[in-house]
Design goal:
With about 250 residues, the protein is an alpha+beta fold. It has seven helices and ten strands. It has a six-stranded antiparallel β-sheet with strand order 4-5-6-9-8-7. Strands 1-2 form a two-stranded antiparallel ribbon. Strand 1 (about 65) and strand 2 (about 70-75) form a beta hairpin. Keywords: DNA-binding, Transcription, Transcription regulation. This is HTH-type transcriptional regulator. GO terms for molecular function: DNA binding; DNA-binding transcription factor activity.
Length: about 250
């Protein structure tokens, strides 16, 4: 490393170098990354320094680390892009990108809606609500955790197998065709249960999309929260074209 590089922490310099190799095409998607031992020898640093650098590159979504006999570190393919303005759920869009997504239902229970939830769903306090939690897995790795809320009065016989379907399909089959969807997107730290489900660290950020779905008469039929690993997708918002664009 040069003298100027040594002014920065070594793990940041190494992360920059590894990122450059990926962005330049020296390392292609699917290529096996050098082992920790090889990186220690190449950069002449301690193994912990190499691990810090790999952590950074992984959080940026550039590499995957897999365990087991066929495991190792691999250059990650460009993640699929989700459109926040498409009106389709993340699950539906991921499948449209060709990902083989399996849905593992973790729980389906009836809860008494607390005040804030009752207000969001347009029901009375303590009215029963279905709360369904699931994890979505692609190629053996969890990429998204979801929490779906549906008033019990609208779907009294909801079953676990129903939850494997995209939300729009499920609601249509329940006779609740949605006509309005409002999404919100935020970056947040993973909750305790999300850390376990998604395999992310306590301080690692996640993308959280909350979708409120209504019928034509304004009845709220569902609220869906989708929490994604930050390295699993990118998100875009499509805006209408302005005939006289401005930088203001």
């Amino acid at each position: 490393m040069s003298t100027s590089q040594r002014r920065r922490p070594a793990y940041l310099v190494i992360a920059d170098s590894l990122r450059s190799k990926i962005e330049s095409g020296e390392l292609q998607p699917g290529d096996r990354f050098p082992t920790e031992r090889e990186l220690v020898q190449e950069y002449k640093v301690a193994r912990m320094t190499v691990r810090h650098a790999l952590d950074i590159v992984q959080i940026e979504g550039l590499i995957d680390r897999k365990r087991g006999r066929t495991g190792g570190t691999f250059v990650r393919a460009t993640p699929p892009t989700l459109s926040l303005t498409s009106g389709r759920s993340a699950l539906q869009q991921l499948r449209e990108h060709g990902l083989d997504i399996s849905v593992q239902v973790l729980s389906l229970v009836l809860i008494d809606a607390p005040g804030h939830l009752a207000s969001a769903l347009g029901i009375e306090d303590e009215d029963p609500v279905w709360e369904a939690r699931a994890v979505h897995v692609s190629e053996g790795s969890p990429i998204m955790a979801t929490t779906l809320l549906i008033p019990h009065s609208l779907a009294p016989e909801l079953k676990e197998q129903d939850l494997e379907k995209p939300l729009s399909t499920l609601l249509a089959e329940l006779g609740l065709p949605p006509v309005f969807k409002r999404d919100s997107l935020m970056a947040a730290t993973a909750r305790t249960e999300e850390q376990k489900i998604l395999g992310v660290g306590r301080t690692q950020p996640v993308l959280r999309i909350t979708r409120t779905v209504k019928m034509e008469d304004g009845t709220v039929v569902a609220q869906l929260e989708e929490t994604l690993r930050p390295d699993a997708v990118s998100v875009e918002v499509e805006l209408g074209e302005d005939p006289s664009p401005s930088l203001d």
